[in-house]
Specification:
Elements lengths: L1 E3 L22 E5 L7 H10 L3 E5 L5 H18 L4 E5 L5 E2 L8 E3 L4 E5 L11 E2 L5 H4 L5 E4 L4 E9 L4 E8 L1 E3 L4 E3 L12 H12 L4 E4 L5 H13 L5 E6 L2 H5 L1 H7 L2 E5 H7 L5 H15 L3 E4 L14 H13 L3 E4 L1 H4 L4 H17 L19 H17 L3 E5 L4 H8 L6 E5 L2 H6 L6 E7 L5 H14 L8 E6 L11 E6 L2
Parallel strand pairs: 2-3, 2-18, 3-4, 4-14, 7-8, 14-15, 15-16, 16-17, 17-18, 19-20, 19-22, 20-21
Antiparallel strand pairs: 1-21, 5-13, 6-12, 7-11, 9-10, 9-13, 10-11, 22-23
Helix pairs in contact: 1-2, 1-12, 5-7, 7-9, 10-12
């Protein structure tokens, strides 16, 4: 048997007494960039409370990505961390091209001509946009939003022969090169994976990253296609669906079923949707993910005031707090850690906000959202996990322990949001890191040699006791699958008192 806190050599066993100093149950995802991409910078963020590092494949080169991945894995090996790595694919992001003199002032009533046929230098006569079928997919009256919606134009004419699209400026301003484009009224025909994404996916799978985020998901089939590619490569990477388009909201139930988790990307979502609809969309998606036992991340502009400042503004504090109270598995930092002035401080501050909200006990014990459904193919496991959390609540248990080989038991126990600390053991090393994204989960590698659930549960309790997670007299609710040797689904639970 082998029980470890981190990722160690094949024949090593963890020795010593280490308790995770980070007691926040809502996890923190930090984007890696120039402000933190050294070994020292990444280590400081892990020590400050980061659970998942996000690599944004819209930026960076493979050589630098390789170095960052090596740094993170060294941190895990040497520091008893289980920090997960998320590779975020760019997806079919639309952008305008270069602009003469670096900026173009446009005023209300101006008429601009967009083209995707040739990469022209943008000016008042013609502006390039990276969407080959723009002229085929838009119709007169469609909105085109530029630079996160700062600029808005409306299609007034289309030339199918030349591919030119004329648009009148509704809200003007300064137009800069390479800015993003959103088409909230248009059904985009681009494939979910671009040529760049396919190349990036090859790199991600080669490096065995834990999570892969697919950008601009429109329907469940986009996720199914990506997961098929991952399966063909015999990879264990799990897929996050990034929700940032109205079409994804329409098919959200199927997308959640198809994906392993969800990332609510409020940046583009807030441009594509009317802004007043974003808060409800966020809350609804979180509730649906909890119900399905799928991890959910809330992302974009969470602590934006700390990109330059040393203290967050009140709206940022409230934004993070609301995401925690709504039950998100994780909250994400983007530019705050990637290019901000104080990456370590922003993580520490986010930790304080999370812990304060969690100390109120506002959102624990959400089993009412997870009542087992008899038609579910995993009904027996669902019922076992559900009742393990209910019993733990009734007993004010000091711990819930689960064993998993696929992650399913961990996701289900986590989604109940129990008050009791949640410890998950797995014989799959890759899964230990993946579970760093799940709410409340502290995971350990466990090389199971026991043939009975009793022996296995006692060894797990003994380990937690020896390493300071449990004390004599503590009450523990354990779950397991029997028979153990066949890695059966979770179908039993046991209540114990630590001797």
């Amino acid at each position: 048997m082998e029980l470890t806190l981190g990722t160690f050599g094949e024949n090593e066993m963890y020795k010593g007494h280490i308790r995770n100093p980070h007691t926040h149950r809502t996890k923190i995802v930090a984007t890696v960039g120039p402000a933190c991409d050294t070994y020292e910078g990444l280590l400081a963020l892990a020590q400050a409370g980061v659970n998942v590092f996000r690599l944004n494949f819209s930026h960076g080169v493979y050589e630098r990505m390789t170095a960052i991945i090596s740094h993170i894995r060294k941190i895990n090996e040497e520091g008893a961390f289980n920090v997960s790595i998320l590779g975020d694919l760019q997806g079919p992001k639309l952008r305008i091209g270069d602009i003469e003199n670096g900026v173009l002032k446009i005023d209300k009533g101006d008429v601009l001509t967009f083209t995707s046929k040739e990469k022209v230098m943008g000016n008042r006569d013609k502006i390039y946009i990276s969407y080959p079928d723009l002229h085929k997919d838009v119709v007169v009256g469609n909105k085109i939003l530029i630079d996160d919606g700062k600029l808005e134009v409306c299609v007034i004419g289309i030339d199918l022969r030349t591919g030119a699209v004329d648009a009148e400026v509704v809200h003007g301003g300064l137009l800069y090169p390479k800015k993003g484009v959103n088409l909230p009224d248009t059904e985009i025909s681009l494939p979910p994976l671009t040529e760049k994404d396919i190349a990036d996916l090859d790199f991600i799978l080669e490096k065995e990253l834990d999570w892969i985020a697919l950008s601009f998901v429109r329907k469940a089939e986009d996720i199914i296609d990506l997961k098929k590619r991952i399966t063909e490569r015999r990879s264990n990477s799990k897929v996050l669906a990034k929700i940032e388009m109205p079409s994804a909201i329409i098919d959200i139930n199927n997308i959640i079923r198809a994906a392993d988790g969800v990332l609510i990307a409020r940046g583009d979502l807030g441009v594509e949707l009317p802004v007043e609809k974003v808060p409800y969309a966020q809350r609804s998606i979180i509730r649906k993910c909890i119900h399905r036992g799928k991890p959910v991340i809330v992302a974009t502009q969470m602590m934006e005031s700390m990109i330059t400042g040393i203290r967050p503004n009140r709206s940022d504090i409230t934004d993070v707090a609301n995401a925690v109270m709504e039950g998100a598995d994780a909250v994400m930092l983007s530019a705050e850690t990637a290019t901000g002035n104080h990456p370590g401080l922003v993580v520490e501050t986010m930790c304080k906000i999370i812990k304060e909200v969690e100390s109120s006990g506002y959102y624990y014990d959400r089993q009412e959202q997870l009542i087992p459904q008899k038609h579910s193919p995993t009904f027996l496991s669902d019922a076992t996990c559900y009742n393990a959390c209910r019993i733990a609540g009734d007993l004010s248990a000091d711990a819930i322990i689960g064993m998993t080989q696929s992650g399913y038991t961990a996701f289900m126990l986590s989604s109940c949001r129990p008050r009791s600390p949640l410890f998950i053991f797995s014989g799959e090393r890759w899964l230990v890191n993946q579970l760093s994204l799940s709410w409340g989960v502290t995971a350990f590698y466990y090389n199971n040699e026991e043939i009975t659930p009793d022996a296995m549960m006692l060894k797990q309790i003994s380990f937690l006791n020896a390493n300071g997670y449990l004390e004599q007299g503590d009450i523990v609710v354990s779950t397991s699958g029997t028979p153990v040797v066949s890695a059966s689904p979770t179908n039993m639970l046991r209540v114990s008192r630590v001797e």
